[in-house]
């Protein structure tokens, strides 16, 4: 049986995470100190997928520099350079020659442990043209809801229903399995979106279109501040295990002064300095080459690489962008701060 290939959708700007992503492309957004696409590539490789296409557009050079040819992750990467964004389906259509057999599509902002082998087997057993990985969510107001029959056949979609109007609690993860017949539903050289354009056409055609409830699996779309925080904290506290990542961890090269108070799960990256009198209340993620000043207080906070937190600053539920300097004595709560230069 031919090996399964995959495509990672990575061309967008991730505007929902501004200002963090003004100077950092979406694929490079860190989860527990490492770009999320690194986690995605390891995830795909763990399921035997070695040939992977990835589309790039915004700050494409940074993406190429971060992931290269993919060999660091045990995969072979082929890049699609989009001069203009073509939409989720349009980008896949541009790589049609790459996918002669069943293939997988996953977003660069997906963090998951969904067993792909089970999803692919489900898809093949049903002779489907398309299969969506689904997970249960109690609150579905911010998701696309999928209504399925008892056998998993998709009946309809409901986009971001208000509380009390939802007809299902199964949400679309954006993790798809397709057969090449999908390409007949995608116009070439046009902006085409799976959810808005392709899936309604498949439903109308009556072709075999399924969703599988990946019960018990973890999934998070890291593209919003609240979900981005959740993903980092779930990794640091051990709720989600990622290959090669120890969540509650202090790098051997981190310099942590005597008298620093660390409570709960806290990850501190390489070459970071934490000065005397600082207090870190987890879950927290502090990147590499950071400076945490004397007497600083950080609670439920994420600090990207090369940032500096001034003496006596207080941060709670904050996200600090790469290279950002937080003034001494500053107070930041439930907010994102990023260096002014990031907008240049």
Briefly, what is this?
The chain is α/β, with parallel strands linked by helices. The chain has six helices and 28 strands.
Structural class: alpha/beta
Average pLDDT across residues? Answer: 93
- What is the distance, rounded to the nearest whole angstrom, between the alpha carbons of the first and last residues? 49 Å
**Helix run count:** 6
Query: How many individual β-strands?
Result: 28
Spatially, the strands of the biggest sheet line up as 5-4-1-6-11-8-12
Give the DSSP E fraction (strand runs of 2 or more residues).
25-35%
- The helicity comes to 10-25%
Sketch the major β-sheet: 7 strands, mixed
Would you write up a description of this structure?
The protein has 344 residues and is of the alpha/beta class. It is built from six helices and 28 strands. It has helices at residues 36-46, 60-67, 87-94, 116-125, 194-205, 225-236, and strands at 5-9, 30-31, 34-35, 51-56, 76-81, 103-107, 110-112, 130-136, 144-148, 154-159, 170-178, 209-213, 219-221, 255-256, 261-263, 266-268, 273-274, 279-281, 284-286, 291-292, 297-299, 302-303, 308-309, 314-316, 319-320, 325-326, 331-333, 336-337. It has a seven-stranded mixed beta sheet, sandwiched between helices. A hairpin with a 2-residue loop joins strand 2 and strand 3 (34-35). The N and C termini lie far apart (49 Å). 44% of the residues are buried.
């Amino acid at each position: 049986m031919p090996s399964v290939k995959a495509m990672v959708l990575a061309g967008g700007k991730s505007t929902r995470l501004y200002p963090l992503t003004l100077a950092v492309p979406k694929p490079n957004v860190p989860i527990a100190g490492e770009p999320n696409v690194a986690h995605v590539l390891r995830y795909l490789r763990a399921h035997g997928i070695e040939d992977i296409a990835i589309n790039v557009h915004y700050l494409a050079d940074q993406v190429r520099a971060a992931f290269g040819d993919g060999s660091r992750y045990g995969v072979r990467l082929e890049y699609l350079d989009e001069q203009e964004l073509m939409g989720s389906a349009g980008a896949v259509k541009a790589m049609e020659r790459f996918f002669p057999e069943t293939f997988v599509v996953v977003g660069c902002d997906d963090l998951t442990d969904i067993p792909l082998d089970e999803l692919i087997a489900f898809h093949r057993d049903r002779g489907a043209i398309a299969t969506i990985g689904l997970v249960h969510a109690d609150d579905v107001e911010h998701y696309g809801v999928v209504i399925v029959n008892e056998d998993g056949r998709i009946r309809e979609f409901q986009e971001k229903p208000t509380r009390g109007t939802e007809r299902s609690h199964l949400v679309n993860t954006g993790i798809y399995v397709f057969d090449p017949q999908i390409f007949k539903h995608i116009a070439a050289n046009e902006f085409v979106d799976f959810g808005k354009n392709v899936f309604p056409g498949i439903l109308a055609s009556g072709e075999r279109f399924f969703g599988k409830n990946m019960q018990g699996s973890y999934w998070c779309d890291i593209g919003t501040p609240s979900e981005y925080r959740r993903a980092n904290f779930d990794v640091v506290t051990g709720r989600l295990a990622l290959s090669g990542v120890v969540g509650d961890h202090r790098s051997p090269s981190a310099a942590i002064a005597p008298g620093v108070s660390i409570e709960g799960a806290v990850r501190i990256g390489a070459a970071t300095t934490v000065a005397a009198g600082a207090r870190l209340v987890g879950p927290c993620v502090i990147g590499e080459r950071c400076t945490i000043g004397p007497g600083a207080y950080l609670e439920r906070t994420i600090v990207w690489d090369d940032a500096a937190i001034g003496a006596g600053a207080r941060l709670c539920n904050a996200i600090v962008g790469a290279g950002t300097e937080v003034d001494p004595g500053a107070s930041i709560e439930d907010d994102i701060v990023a260096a002014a230069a990031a907008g240049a």
